[in-house]
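Task card 7
Instruction: Convert sequence to structure tokens.
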Amino acid sequence: MELLFDQQHTVKVQLPAKEGNFSIRELLPWIRDKLLRERPELFMQGDTVRPGVLVLINDVDWELEGELEYQIAEGDRITFISTLHGG
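Output:
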């Protein structure tokens, strides 16, 4: 993942103001458009992360938190981990 994000291990972001919270569904394209430096196809497929990218919300698998529908709260930590390795 660091390769896609300009070799940054951690990125702290301030999401734009809007009424209500951002969902992960809204966060993913925002990340793609604002933070990715190259190869967005390695991060997203359609409207979600591509297979092989593990998503954690506050260190919990996003599948237990509602995946794309999860409403992001201030202070949440969203982690993306690639489980794919080149050969």
